[in-house]
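Appendix C: a fully annotated inverse folding record. The material below is reproduced so that readers can follow the format used throughout the book. The structure is listed first as tokens, followed by the designed sequence.
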């Protein structure tokens, strides 16, 4: 099933930016649609964004459209999430995942993003 390792989280002021990375190993990264999901304190998992294999079609949840950008580097087997205009409500643990929402889902350990002044 492979392994996913997220990095790049941290504490940032409202309006700031962060770039999350997700390093993949143990599977053919380029063949999979990849996702970012998040879990805010006391809440359930929320899908944030996805990028398809091949064409690289991207999708976003409404609350992050225009602020977040998902991308991938298949040569480096790395998924990215550029987050601009961060808001306190973006505070969450962010995970990357393949096969999101299926019985064969693989998810990383997560990286904490805290947006606070």
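Designed amino acids, in order:
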């Amino acid at each position: 099933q492979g392994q996913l390792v997220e990095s790049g989280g941290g504490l940032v002021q409202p309006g700031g930016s962060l770039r999350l990375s997700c390093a993949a190993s143990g599977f053919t990264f380029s063949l999979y649609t990849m996702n970012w999901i998040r879990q805010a304190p006391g809440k359930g998992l929320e899908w944030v964004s996805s990028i398809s294999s091949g064409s690289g079609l991207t999708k976003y949840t409404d609350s992050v459209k225009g602020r977040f950008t998902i991308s991938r580097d298949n040569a480096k087997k790395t998924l990215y999430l550029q987050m601009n205009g961060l808001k306190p409500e973006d505070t969450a643990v962010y995970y990357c995942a393949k096969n999101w929402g299926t019985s064969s889902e693989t998810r990383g350990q997560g990286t904490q993003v805290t947006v606070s002044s």
